[in-house]
Design brief:
By secondary structure, the protein is an alpha/beta fold. The protein has 10 helices and 7 strands. Helix 3 links the parallel strand 4 and strand 5. The two termini are about 20 Å apart.
Amino acid sequence: MNGTTTTVRAPSAWLRRFHPAEEAPVRLFCFPHAGGSASYYFPVSRALSPQADVVAVQYPGRQDRRHEAVVDDVRTLADRVFAELRPWCDRPVALFGHSLGATLAFEVALRLEAAGVTPAALFASGRRAPSLHREDERVHLAPDERLLATIKRMSGTDPAVLADDELLRAVLPAIRGDYKAAETYRYLPGPALACPVVVLNGESDPEVTEQEALGWAAHTKGPCSFRSFTGGHFYLNQHASEVIELVRQQLA
């Protein structure tokens, strides 16, 4: 379905459109990192509108959904997100995910293609290929203090939250659940994607080596490109304009 006519959809607790662009030729679905929220993609939405209609996913257990149970399994989360996104596929779509969000975007892309919707692109940022995992990852089982130290080391959490210990502890259940989803995920062999995959990575990211990032090529029958940036796991915070321009060019 490639039209750009306005479609009436029921409100969704899962989706945020900060700058609605109904006439945009493409819709970009954005998936947050572990502990992240839809608002992380507000600058992306602002920069790409009206060329793209940016729809950010809001996971349960944070911000306005903080009273809802966290979904700590990637496939369960993918099933639920797919059901919410399906009515929004009335034009070409693309997916952007960072860290846990990249794995989730991949699983949602698989479901979209199985339903007959081939994305224009999957942007996989800061995450190793789905078929690669590290057996020693156990952060989701760590005591609160170690989990907090990990969050602060990764530098992906809002500084205002990091400075407020009480607030930080309030969001720990969501962060722990997200880490569990990421660390317990195991790829189930199946058909490769047909869509192009664009892999983005920080040169000094301790979570993803270059070889682990390049492994994404095995998960698509389409083209797979790789772009490395200076910085660590949240390299995109310091390279936001470059990443957004790369996305813009790919979507064009």
